[in-house]
Design a protein that fits this description.
Length: 503
């Protein structure tokens, strides 16, 4: 009969592993030949492995089925390796029974249930202080906890601005530090931030840095401007002509009323500035004395041009004076009476209106223009000349005065957007977008004068900058082709107002 030999292990019921009965709930150092029941319900556990000897075994059992939630991190002893790597290992499979076997110095501790604990840092492009940032290189990196992090750099600039000072950097992971240098001086210098250190104990980290605390100086932009207000309204009953709107400009040739060219506007990038395009004044209506209205002011960055004065009118047997404004309205007229006084223009914006004719044939005077006073005439007085400005690249005449009305002879003509006077009941408006004053009409009639023309705002600056209209409210056109490297922006909607930025 054959004999069966039973090994001592089978006889004794052993497995070759000496299991530690205490449940491991905190970090510990493992011993060769031991088995451990590990509970990671509350936290990630770190296990230090012993110095290896070929063939040694260590067993780690997931006691609570939570390794996928809170992993076990294996740390090799000294120069030992895990899966042939100096990186830490991890067990992150629920209910795993990981048997680690020490092979040799090359492979170290190995197991089919152990992965290398590789941490990843992924960088988003930094933000802050309106700077332009480079994409970091490398964009993402991998390594184990405590392993040296590969040096990463990014740069920041702001076109046309100077960066200075020391940045406060938020969002740096634990173990990683930042050094910063600024290269160059003046506009467009460069900030370089260099990241070094060790990988944090996080498997995956997607982080964005935010910079603050730097001094970013952006010098103001010098902007040429033309600001023309709305022209004044005309009148009936031999009224004087409405005046051209006030005109202010930094462009060559000077402002209205004989004023010199002003200094360019100094505009801080990223700052809101109000632009308003003044509407023209309205014709006189209703009960005698039928006064019209002055034009509305136009504004750019605190530079205000005053609306043109209304034309004077007859009131009973008295000729009334023209209204004051950017330029002054023309005086009215009535037969056998003294002519109405001229409206007064604003210094360095426009001229006075003309004086209404004394007696005679119902002759109103011309309204003042940006380039000349209004006239008195045997017919309706001619409106004062406007001012020619070439800020757009073309010679355009703005803010001419409207002409006065006359009863038995044609009213005077007008230039620079001013409306012609009338010997009939025909409405004669100033030209929109030029700020011309309205013409006035003859005696009688229900509609016998015109409305003033709307004003305009035009600015001119280097095309390396971009204009925006936060909140809307403005109609404008941008011309970048007429003059090289220059943007010419025309704001033209009557009564429109809003904020602009130049960046």
């Amino acid at each position: 009969m054959a004999l069966t030999k039973l090994t001592s292990n089978l006889i004794e019921g052993g497995t070759g592993t000496d299991w530690v009965t205490a449940i491991q709930t905190s970090n510990f150092t493992a011993a060769a030949g031991k088995g451990y029941f590990v509970n990671t319900t509350s936290q990630v556990l770190y296990v230090n492995l012993p110095v290896g000897v070929v063939g040694m075994e260590i067993t780690i059992q997931d006691y609570a089925g939570t390794f996928a939630t809170n992993k076990v991190v294996l740390n090799a002893n000294g120069s030992e390796k895990i899966q042939g790597s100096a990186l830490e290992g991890r067990i992150n499979t629920n209910n795993a029974t990981a048997v680690l076997i020490y092979q040799d110095a090359t492979k170290g501790w190995t197991s089919q249930d152990v992965e290398l604990d590789i941490n990843t840092i992924s960088w988003a492009t930094p933000t802050g202080q309106s700077l332009t940032y480079s994409t970091p290189s490398p964009q993402s990196s991998q390594g184990g906890t405590g392993v040296t992090f590969p040096t990463t750099t990014f740069t920041a600039t702001k076109a046309g601005s100077t960066i200075s000072g020391t940045a406060t950097i938020a969002g740096l992971p634990s173990g990683i530090t930042a050094a910063q240098t600024i290269a160059g001086s003046g506009a467009g210098n460069t900030l370089t931030v260099t990241l070094t250190g060790t990988f944090p104990s996080t498997s995956y980290l997607n982080t964005a840095l935010t910079l603050s605390g730097l001094s970013v100086y952006t010098p103001p932009v010098s902007v040429h401007f033309l600001v023309v207000a709305g022209g004044g309204g005309g009148n009936r009953n031999n009224g004087g002509g409405g005046a051209g709107g006030g005109l202010r400009t930094s462009w060559a040739g000077g402002s209205g009323g004989g004023g010199a060219s002003e200094s360019q506007a100094s505009i801080s990038p990223g700052t809101n500035y109000i632009v308003t395009v003044g509407a023209g004044g309205t014709v006189g209506t209703g009960s005698s004395p039928y006064y019209g209205t002055i034009g509305n002011s136009s504004v750019f960055a605190g530079i205000t041009s005053i609306g043109g004065g209304y034309g004077g009118v007859r009131s009973g047997d008295v000729a009334q004076r023209g209204g004051d404004g950017g330029s002054g309205g023309g005086g009215g007229n009535y037969t056998a009476s003294t002519g109405g006084s001229p409206g007064i223009g604003t210094t360095n914006q426009g001229y006075n209106g003309g004086t209404g004719a004394d007696g005679g044939n119902y002759r109103g005077a011309g309204g003042g223009g940006a380039g000349a006073i209004g006239q008195t005439s045997g017919a309706g007085g001619v409106g004062g000349a406007g001012k020619t400005v070439s800020i757009t690249g073309s010679n355009i005449t703005y803010a001419g005065g409207g002409s006065g009305g006359a009863n038995s002879s044609p009213g005077g003509s007008a230039g620079g957007g001013g409306g012609a006077g009338s010997s009939s009941y025909t409405m004669s408006n100033g030209t929109d977008g030029l700020g011309g004053g309205a013409g006035s009409g003859a005696i009688g009639g229900t509609v016998s004068g015109g409305n003033g023309g709307s004003g305009v705002v035009i600015i001119r600056y280097p095309s390396s900058y971009v204009l925006t209209n936060p909140g809307g409210g403005l109609t404008y056109a941008v011309d970048t082709t007429t003059v090289a490297n220059t943007s010419i922006v025309t704001f033209s909607n009557a009564g429109g107002t809003g904020n602009i930025q130049i960046n």
